[in-house]
Amino acid sequence: MQRAGIFRFFGARMEMLGVVLSIGLGCASAHAVTQIGMLNQPYPYLVIEQDLRIVLSEFGRNLGIETKVSRNVGGMVRGLRNVDSADAFLRSLTDAHDLVWYMDRNTLFVSTRKENSTEVLPVPSMNVEQRQALASEWSRQGAGISIVLDDRSPALFVTGPASFRERIAAVVSSERVTSSPGVHSRDVAEITVYRGQAGPQRVMVSR
Prior knowledge:
This protein is α+β, with helices and mostly antiparallel strands. The protein has a four-stranded antiparallel sheet. The chain has four helices and 13 strands. The protein has helices at about 50-65, 85-95, 130-140, 160-180, and strands spanning about 5-10, 15, 45-50, 65-70, 75-80, 100-105, 105-110, 115-120, 140-145, 145-150, 155-160, 190-195, 200-205. It comes from Bordetella genomosp. 4.
């Protein structure tokens, strides 16, 4: 017989057995992609035994952020001890279950490492400094993802799940439009596109 999960939230001095404790820990930023530091806040949870997908869902709910978990993510969380921060809690799950995650605005995306792939994105419209800035910014947004500059050509090696690669492709696409010769702000328009699991994305297109 499967044992029920036990969660303890010491900060509020509350305890529930057999159910998941759901307590909001504050509103998340509308631009989580630039505020990954929000995961540094305390997250004093102790997990005895609970379904991994439920743990991830409650993690997002307690932080006030949306969570999108790949259908390939599964398993049980057992004996996860209390940690100092939300980031440490999430990384403990990542190490134990071979997960990959990243944050984009107000959404946490979680997948398995087996879903990772590397894609080469040509970015001739971006100089070295711009490519380095993009790679540095996005590589810090999670665990198991990366963007590396190609030393031989103006391209990026993007590693991560499909949703992450699609997101970076959208960013690069926007940069290509705004950097094209003869293209001014009045010649482009911003639209919302939907790409797989990446959610709504703002993209610049020519009028």
